[in-house]
Amino acid sequence: MPQLVGRRFFGLIMQAFVERLHLNGKGLKRRAVDVLQVNLGRYCNLACIHCHVEAGPTRKEMMSRENVDAVLRFLANSKIPTLDITGGAPELHGDFDYLIESARALGRHVMDRCNLTVIFEPGKDYLPEFFRRHRVELVCSLPCYSIDNVDKQRGKGTFDGSIRALQILNQVGYGQPDSGLVLDLVYNPVGPHLPPAQENLEQDYKRILFAEFGIVFNRLFCLTNMPITRYATHLKLRREYEPYLELLETNFNASTIDQVMCRNLLSVGWDGGIYDCDFNQMLDLAIAEGDKRLHISSLTLDQVIEPAIKVGDHCYACTAGSGSSCGGTLV
């Protein structure tokens, strides 16, 4: 196994999460695969502090057309209802449109994890109408309704661009009542703490964004920041890494285990590798049979249902407090 970020990801604490599961009479196995989450690459127009993918404008990792086609073959040979596309900024991938059009032709629901500002990149102004035409569900990052907090986490000018993008999406029907065009927002804490109650914060978001900018949306997802890769480095520079890990561990909530996303999700890396979740992907904790890593080009569902889900100390981030998943809080 490769070395993971920070000394507390070695041995003792990593084992401690497994022991915590056992002490609570819990185990982690996949029930089914309802969501195929595909990371198209690490290239992005932003370089956010909390980004566990360590995406940014200088990253070169991008999924090949061969692997994109392998994803589509796997979908066609399965009954997985949802394709969840992420990155980086997945919209900057040359086969982004092709993947969505092909998945929709297979009758699959498609979600796009969008940073909003990408629609202002050169040649990407068509995206709102493209999303509308293909009924793509949008899950968009907006870590706060405050300009200072958003720009602090994502870069100067990001808040204004995000607001303009949301207004454009509203204009084509996203988030509007009875449109069927789903627009969800994602909140991440700016500092090393757990998210507040999702339902209450959603009401604040809706009230403030509508009052100040006329923006409407469907749901708010509260996500706990994962203390790995870039965010781990940020925390260490501020001497907040160890206290944050302790916060997550102290707030472990056994009732979240039954709802964690790895129970019904499968993650595909830009290189076609298979993982239990996007976080395991970034830590290179691949699903394997013996010494052979699984790859999307030859994958069958039977290969991922039986093996136990790989866990580590980072899993405390998904199971702390109200829990955290790609769809927000768990309990």
Structure in words:
With 331 residues, this protein is of the alpha/beta class. It has a single domain (7-319), classed as Aldolase class I (TIM Barrel). Helices cover 34% and strands 12% of the residues. It has helices at residues 12-23, 65-76, 96-105, 127-133, 147-154, 158-171, 198-213, 229-237, 241-250, 278-282, 302-305, 316-319; strands at 35-39, 82-86, 109-114, 137-141, 183-187, 219-222, 265-268, 274-275, 288-289, 292-293. The strands form two sheets. Strands 6-5-4-3-2-1-7-8 form an eight-stranded mixed sheet. The longest helix is centred in the middle third of the chain and has 16 residues, at 198-213. The chain is globular, with a radius of gyration of 19 Å.
Give the gist of this structure.
The protein is an alpha/beta fold and 331 residues long. 34% of the residues lie in helices and 12% in strands. It has one domain (7-319): Alpha-Beta Barrel (TIM Barrel), CATH 3.20.20.70.
Distance between the termini: 32 Å
Kindly provide the name of the CATH class.
Answer: Alpha Beta
Structural class: alpha/beta
DSSP strand content: 5-15%
Overall pLDDT: 91
CATH superfamily: Aldolase class I
SSE ordering: HEHEHEHEHHEHEHHEEHEEHH
Question: Got a strand count?
Answer: 10
Largest sheet: 8 strands, mixed
CATH topology annotation: TIM Barrel
Radius of gyration: 19 Å
What CATH architecture would you give? Answer: Alpha-Beta Barrel
- Main-sheet strand order equals 6-5-4-3-2-1-7-8
The general outline is: globular
Total of DSSP H or I helical runs spanning 4+ residues: 12
Helix content: 25-40%
Low-confidence stretches: 1-15
Structural domain count: 1
